[in-house]
Specification:
The complex is a heterodimer of chains A (about 300) and B (about 325). Chain A is built from twelve helices and four strands. By secondary structure, chain A is mainly alpha-helical. In chain A, the strands form two sheets. Chain A has a two-stranded antiparallel ribbon with strand order 1-4. In chain A, helix 8 packs antiparallel against helix 9 and helix 10 runs antiparallel to helix 11. Chain A starts with a helix and ends with a helix. Chain B is built from 16 helices and no strands. In chain B, helix 12 runs antiparallel to helix 13, helix 12 runs parallel beside helix 14 and helix 15 packs antiparallel against helix 16. The chains are: A mainly alpha (about 300), B mainly alpha (about 325). Chains A and B meet through helix 1, helix 4, helix 9, helix 10 and helix 11 of A and helix 5, helix 7, helix 9, helix 10 and helix 16 of B.
């Protein structure tokens, strides 16, 4: 290689290896970029949840969390919710590794799965999960049981650990509670209140669960805290980000040992601190990335 | 009251404790009520036991203003009661009144019966009030209590003290707020990302030789990126080239010392070659790197747990 050639090659390497700008929100990674990008990242289809109950709450928290998956999908931050926003269809879902058009996903991809890869790039439209309780078969393999299907998605399609029986029961209960009669056509805004509600509901679900399931639910709650933190711009919200990070670490610490005992001792104090932090942030919510106009500026 | 973890065990005795500890002078300081001893509160004054129960119910319902108002009545009637002061302090924390929470929490930790969490909460309040020295004092007190927690003290209490100690220590050390976005997808030229995805797919099919070729191609496209170096280490490890693998992991960590993937995979390698303590250290590092949890931490934790089971630990 000539000296000039080596110089060009080195320059190329340095440019290529330079860190790209960090995404503002992790959902950016799998959201199709259009003129309404910021709006798409600050709203979701309204959840068609017809009932409530302990199992449903367990399933709801896990549905929204990366905790169920393993492999590349978990490392990117995918969850059931990423494709099935609000249990419905994320029409803007687009991940280069899995999609060929917005709203599609290759469920037999080598990239995500160790056992389901079929060697063909064949993304399919993401299905709506509302009304799934009335279906006779599920997925491309026409599984006769929703339990078998969901377990297969977690363990085979996305390399997740085998879910506890309570976790699987919760997911099934959540999916069966998605009712067309409870749907609204109006998208629902993603706000500080809805994001904080996700955290509280995950912690509350952990409170009544067996120790192994509670541990996964606290991981889901940690993950839900992250979904608030990423919407707080630096440096204006540095103090609040630090407070939430500490709260997330506290949840992680509770996962060691007997989770139920740990949580029983610490839950009220944790919740008081979390609520105080959220209230403080709420006074300036208009300046956060929950506000599509502020987010749009950051995404430019 | 069921959600207030430590309360159920004390609930039956608490009302009596309140009545016993509410001397006439204390009770009158709490808002004009007379009465004391075991005869119950004066009909003209507030009932501290009732106020306590209502306060705890409001605390569990996250109505912090009501909780603070009710629990203040109880705390005024029983100013030395650790349980009541702890609950009152939590209500004020929830109401974002850190200055107000300090006093009841200071009272809560005076006796031996204080919930372990009370010292942690007090330490966190001190930190919020920028009094690091006093926060450290609570950490020292927790360490002392932990050291003194013998058989009679019990495993559960020891675990509570340990959890409180560790959480407060973490808060005092205050690691920087971590970036919640994963940034796992390889940035850079599309060609590099495609080759990287192909390599990941080949890894998933255990076709490590071909994966090595794909990651080498990725490296040509994007340069010495830590994600690529990490996967070059991974594929070499799977091919049994441990020394080469360690070299790649170390190269990835030299560029990004906090690289989660390299931290995880190096831990897995340590387990494979019997360096268990080093693997545990990698797991502890991931705990620090992942305040919101992360797949890398979960995966290595499963490896360590499987190793513990295999070793009969």
């Amino acid at each position: 290689m000539t000296g000039r050639g080596a110089g060009i090659a080195l320059a190329f390497l340095l440019i290529a290896a330079a860190p790209s700008s960090t995404p503002v929100l992790r959902a950016q990674e799998w959201t199709h970029r259009t003129a309404t990008f910021a709006q798409d990242l600050t709203q979701a289809p309204a959840e068609c949840l017809a009932r409530s109950g302990d199992d449903i709450e367990v399933g709801r928290a896990l549905f929204r969390s990366t905790a169920l998956f393993g492999g590349p999908a978990a490392r990117v931050g995918l969850s059931c919710e990423a494709c099935h926003a609000g249990g419905r269809i994320n029409a803007q879902f687009h991940l280069a590794e899995l999609s060929d058009a917005p709203g599609t996903v290759d469920v037999t991809s080598e990239w995500a799965s160790k056992v389901r890869g079929d060697g063909v790039r064949n993304p399919v439209p993401i299905p709506d999960l509302v009304g799934v309780r009335d279906r006779a078969s599920f997925g491309g393999k026409r599984e006769p049981s929703l339990e078998v299907f969901v377990r297969g998605v977690i363990v085979e399609e996305f390399q997740g650990p085998v879910p506890t029986s309570a976790a699987l029961r919760g997911l099934i209960a959540y999916l069966r509670a998605l009712d067309p009669a409870a749907c609204s056509v109006t998208p629902h805004p993603v706000t500080l209140a809805t994001a904080a509600d996700d955290v509280r509901r995950a912690v509350a679900a952990a409170d009544g669960a067996d120790s192994a399931t509670a541990s996964v639910l606290l991981y889901a709650a940690q993950d839900a805290v992250a979904r608030i933190v990423e919407r707080l711009p630096e440096p204006q919200f540095a103090r609040d980000r630090a407070a939430l990070t500490l709260l997330a670490r506290d949840l992680g610490a509770l996962r060691a040992g007997d989770v139920r005992v740990n949580l029983g001792d610490a839950r009220t104090g944790w919740m008081a601190r979390f609520d105080a932090t959220v209230r403080r942030i709420g006074k300036r919510e208009a300046r956060t990335y929950f506000n599509p106009r502020v987010l749009a500026r950051a995404l430019r | 009251m069921a959600r207030f973890g430590w309360v159920p065990a004390l609930a039956l005795t608490l009302a009596a404790a309140l009545l016993v500890s509410a001397s006439p002078s204390q009770a009158s300081g709490g808002g004009g009520g007379g009465g004391g001893g075991m005869s119950g509160p004066s009909s003209s004054g507030p009932d501290p036991a009732k106020a306590y129960q209502e306060g705890v119910a409001a605390l569990n319902a996250r109505d912090y203003a009501t909780a603070a108002s009710k629990l203040r009545v109880a705390a005024d009637a029983a100013p030395t009661n650790a349980t009541v002061n702890y609950a009152y302090g939590l209500a004020l924390v929830g109401a974002n009144d850190m200055r107000g929470a300090r006093r009841p929490l200071e009272r809560a930790v005076r006796g031996d019966t204080a919930p372990a969490d009370a010292r942690k909460q007090l330490g966190l309040v001190y930190l919020q009030l920028n009094d690091r020295e006093k926060a450290t004092g609570q950490l020292t007190a927790l360490a002392t209590a932990l050291a003194a927690c013998d058989t009679a003290c019990g495993d559960q209490r020891r675990l509570q003290l340990q959890t409180a100690h560790d959480a407060l220590k973490l808060a005092i050390e205050a690691p920087a707020a971590a970036q919640p976005t994963t940034g796992w997808l390889l940035p850079g030229p599309a060609e590099g990302r495609a080759a990287y995805a192909e390599g990941v797919g080949l890894v998933n099919q255990a076709r490590y030789g071909e994966a090595l070729v794909a990651f080498t191609r990725t490296e040509t496209a994007v340069g010495p990126h830590p994600d690529v170096l990490n996967y070059l280490g991974f594929t070499n490890r799977k091919l049994g080239n441990y020394d080469t693998a360690v070299g790649y992991y170390e190269a990835a960590l030299a560029i990004d010392p906090d690289h989660r993937g390299a931290t995880e995979y190096l831990g897995e390698l340590y387990l494979e070659i019997g360096r268990f303590a080093d693997a545990q250290r990698q797991l502890a590092k991931l705990d620090t790197l992942c305040p919101y949890g992360c797949a890398e931490r979960e995966e290595l934790a499963r490896w360590v747990a499987a190793r513990d089971v295999a070793a009969g630990r």
